[in-house]
Amino acid sequence: MEPSTSSDSHRFLASPVLFHPFHGENIELLEHRRRALRRVSFEKGIVFSERALLEGECFFISIEDVEGGWSGHLRIGLTTVDPDTRPSVRNLDSNSWLFSISPFIVPLQNPISARSLPTEKGSLIGVYYERSTGTLRIHVVLNGFDICPDFGTIPSDQPFFAVVDVFGSTKEVRVVFSGPRMPSRLYTLCSDRLRCLYNEKRCSLSSLPNPLRSQLEKEWNSGDTTDVSSYFSWKGVR
């Protein structure tokens, strides 16, 4: 398999990335492999993207459910191990670069995303890679805030699959969308603000234009068929 390149960027929207059928033994895939639920325990919750990512293509997930009583949280990153080979944990350890999401990772320079912890239900988390001056760098996106963990030297001549460890207090995740790196800054700010207002029960999705409402519902929908957007009102929102 050849490494993915940005020349294929037109495929971002034409080829949505779901979870690969191979997964950890405690995971159940739902909604046509769009949702990953860890049924028992706190571990063995590994899931992969169904194909290698293109350069600059961000694999986004949302945290759909959390469970108290466990230590640790979701981990996300990239691996050069093809899930078609049904890899062992040992192979993953030596060929993967995973970033542990922590409630203490709150970007103070981003007051919108700082209002909710990245480990909370509803958080939007993504991972992508880019090559700069011959060096491959992995980026993690936390509620619209882009960080670049230092993983040291990473081989750049192999395809990369997204890998997510539904670990600890993180109970369920859902694929949101796949696209070039991350949404535009304006879209990110608006989406984050709407999410905050929605979570605070200060807005209703039903009051939004249909195209925007449809997009946000795709990103936020937890699989519950109840139309909760009708419960809230825009009254008093500024």
Automatic annotation (TrEMBL):
One of its GO terms (molecular function) is ubiquitin protein ligase activity. Residues 16-178 form the NHR domain. Coiled coil: none annotated. PANTHER family: NEURALIZED, NEURALIZED-LIKE PROTEIN 2. This is NHR domain-containing protein. It comes from Parelaphostrongylus tenuis (Meningeal worm).
